[in-house]
Design brief:
The complex is a heterodimer of chains A (about 90) and B (about 270). With about 90 residues, chain A is an alpha+beta fold. Chain A has 4 helices and 2 strands. Chain B is built from 12 helices and 8 strands. Chain B has an 8-stranded mixed beta sheet, sandwiched between helices. Chain B is an alpha/beta fold and about 270 residues long. The longest helix of chain B has 16 residues. Chain B is globular and about 55 Å long. Classes of the chains: A alpha+beta (about 90), B alpha/beta (about 270).
Chain lengths: ~90, ~270
């Protein structure tokens, strides 16, 4: 039951669920040799460089590593500011 | 005859590599295969006691590699199966006594004599592990449903894949179905999903394993033991047999679903 509620809330309340979530994150960083700290600095620099060309919404910018099997992909979601709203 | 080299490894220590090696070697021998198992944990010899052969050792792996004896002199015959032999590790040397190229040469010599050469790798990712990996055709990674063991298994799988070894499969050892059901242990499905390699066996936690180790008689010889049956099933799968997964007292379809994952139905 506890795990059902956890699943409905989108997070795990069982200790096995915790273990799985923690392992998932650790493995992503182990496999890519990219620490959460470095990922944050990558994100900051990416925002900086892109901002030189186009105005972006940095509060909503997301960057993460997604795993598909044993392959890892860097996914960036960078919403642009609408020119109309700027005025 | 061209024997296959099977390396049993894990990264983390204490997950059951030696127990797995002894049991798979015995399982394959009981299925009529000619098997030699090789303890490559130099300085920390253990496969001999798990197989109950510690009193028969005269020569070891390093003696054979350095030419102090003929290869056949270092092969100790099993007490139960005449088609099963053990080459023990040296106890008074360390892992630098041999190089990966020595292991390749030794295994090439053995390939013409037996069907299976099973290497018990030491823990870690250093020289000893490299020695065990160098000659292998198939790698079996043993892990436990536990954070540190799974993490280390992932490191090992990464290294093995970088070496472009063709076949890497997973054995999940010491699953406790009751704890999995309560949500207090990673399930076999969770581990397979995280590590993303094919599964070849799930061994339930079973007191009979320790009892059989005490007696120096691999648990696979005890057909009343769930763990023994699970090891025998891995042996059969290695020979290409399609063996259904044990239900392990679970009413849910967990292990059936795992079977489907293995065959690619999910």
């Amino acid at each position: 039951m506890a795990s059902l509620i956890g699943r409905l809330l989108g997070k795990s309340s069982t200790s096995a669920g915790q273990a799985k979530e923690r392992l998932h994150l650790v493995l992503v960083h182990d496999r890519t040799d990219l620490s959460p700290e470095n990922l944050k600095s990558l994100k900051d620099r990416l925002i900086q460089v892109i901002s030189e060309y186009v105005e972006i919404n940095d509060a909503e910018t997301e960057i993460q590593i997604q795993g598909q099997g044993r392959e890892q992909t860097l996914i960036a979601n960078i919403p642009l500011k609408s020119p109309r709203r700027q005025r | 005859m061209s024997g296959q080299v099977l390396t049993i490894t894990s990264g983390k220590g204490g997950v059951g590599k030696t127990t797995t090696t002894a049991n798979l070697a015995t399982a394959l021998a009981s299925l009529g295969q000619k098997v030699v198992c090789l303890d490559s944990d130099i300085g920390l010899r253990n496969l001999d006691v798990v197989m109950g052969l510690e009193n028969r050792i005269v020569y070891d792996l390093v003696d054979a590699i350095e030419g102090h004896c003929r290869l056949t002199q270092a092969m100790i015959r099993d007490r139960r199966f005449s088609n099963l032999h053990l080459i023990p590790a040296a106890q008074t040397r360390d892992k630098t006594a041999i190089a990966p190229s020595d292991m390749v040469r030794l295994c090439d010599e053995l390939r013409s004599e037996v069907d299976w050469i099973i290497i018990d790798s030491p823990a870690g990712i250093e020289r000893g592990f490299r020695n065990a990996l160098a000659p292998s055709d198939q790698v079996l990674v043993v892990t436990n449903p536990e954070i540190s063991a799974v993490r280390d298994a992932d490191r090992i799988i990464g290294i093995v894949e970088a070496e472009e070894k063709e076949s890497v499969k997973l054995i999940i050892n010491r699953i406790n179905p009751g704890m999995v059901k309560r949500g207090d242990m990673l399930s076999a499905e969770d581990v397979v999903e995280l590590l993303a390699i094919p599964l070849i066996g799930i061994i339930p936690e079973d007191e009979a394993v320790l009892v059989s180790t005490n007696n120096g008689s691999p648990v696979v010889l005890n057909q009343k033991s769930q763990a023994g049956l699970a090891f025998l099933n891995i042996g059969k799968r290695l020979l290409g047999e399609d063996v259904p997964w044990l239900s392990l007292n679970q009413k849910s379809g967990l292990f059936l679903r795992l079977g489907k994952m293995l065959t690619g139905d999910i």
